[in-house]
Amino acid sequence: MRRRLLLSTLAVAVVAVLLLGIPLAYSTERLIYDEAQQQVEREAATVVAGVNLREELRQSITGDQIAKEFPGRYIVVTMADGTQITAGNAPAKGDHVITKMAANDRGIHVQVSRDAGDVEADAVRTFLLIGSLVVLGVGVAVGLAMVQARKLTLPLIDLAETADRLGSGNARPRRRRYGVPEVDRVAEVLDRSAVRIADLLAASREFASDASHQLRTPLTALSMRLEEMIEAAEYPDVVREEGVAAAAQVERLAAVVEQLLARAKHDPTGDAIPIGVDEIVAQQVKEWEPVFRRENRRIGMSGVRGLTAVVSPGGLSQIVATLLDNSLVHGDGEVTIHTKETPISIVVEVGDEGAGVPPELERRVFDRNVSGRQGTGLGLYLARSLATADGGRLELIRARPATFAIFLRKREEALLARERVVSGPA
């Protein structure tokens, strides 16, 4: 797109030069030649008047006197009696000259000739000046086109990246504006879409959790009743055999339901997998560092390196990004991202040096539509939902200054949770 803008602007500039420059150059040339001819004509009239005056005063007239008054001209004066007086050097044969004649009623005739080479030199200098202005104009047009192309293409590239992130499930509003009304409108629409997508994702995950709980409870009760039937049956052999088969079917049904609901909890970005925490954190620091630098703030990293947690990459990225954005808007000072390992979790702590969470919001900071200022009230709510969907949790471990902690599953804990084997007669 940038190249097309540059080429179109250059084409417009060239067309404007051709439409305006060529007529201007032609008109300027004609004006220079017309001015030269009029000057020679005036000089001829001046010579006639001067010769006539000297004749009336009975003064002598010589060619040297006339040549001194009109240097660079070849002048031929024809008196009334037919005598001729010449002044200056005659032009060479074949030279391009400008010649004008003048006469009076007393029979004095004057012919003034001028070399046209000087006029052509003036015309060439004028053409060079016009050409320099044309080149300058085209250069200015190309420079403005480059600035305008950059102003238009960079926001579009940024919006394309935002749309791609929305398509991959990273539904975090960016709240960036670019000073172009049409582009800003697209950015606002994408932000509203991000909020709606985030609401839909959170609602689907909440539904999955509720459905899992509501289905697991009656299945557990049914399993208990079957076990009681097995224990209290009058015909142990037959009832026990049927009861064991029914219990196995219930177990398998519960396992299938859990697998289906586990899939429903995760969006198309992929299930939680073992990933390196350092890579996700470093990527977010790299993305947010320029924004914090503009606010004269910095992001620091500390703690244990090389930790691996079971989480979806997009989910962890969005959680860390939400906490950094929250610190940028509501916090102050340096932001520290500290990673550590506990016996049961991988912990990522994000804290700053600001005033912290107000006491009246401390218990409701993760509730929907709760915000300190200039916020939608969805960021921390969605971040906690993402952490819960991946089997972790997000907590406020210190209110003033604010420090949030992301508790993630370790690889060993996730493997133990998946090692459930269901067996029994079909």
Structure write-up:
- With 426 residues, the protein is α+β, with helices and mostly antiparallel strands.
- It has helices at residues 2-56, 63-69, 117-167, 181-232, 236-265, 277-294, 313-330, 379-389, 411-418; strands spanning 73-78, 84-87, 97-103, 109-115, 273-276, 299-303, 308-311, 335-341, 345-351, 393-398, 403-410.
- The strands form two sheets. Strands 5, 6, 7, 8, 9, 10 and 11 form a seven-stranded mixed sheet that branches. The protein has a four-stranded antiparallel sheet with strand order 2-1-4-3.
- Strand 1 (73-78) and strand 2 form a beta hairpin.
- Helix 3 packs parallel to helix 4 (181-232) and helix 6 runs parallel beside helix 7.
- The longest helix is centred in the N-terminal third of the chain and has 55 residues, at 2-56.
- It is rod-shaped.
- The chain crosses the membrane at residues 127-147.
- InterPro entries: 2C_sensor_his_kinase, DraK_HK_N, HAMP_dom, HATPase_C_sf, HATPase_dom, His_kinase_dom, HisK_dim/P_dom, HisK_dim/P_sf.
- Its EC number is 2.7.13.3.
- It catalyses: ATP + protein L-histidine = ADP + protein N-phospho-L-histidine.
- Residues 210-412 form the Histidine kinase domain.
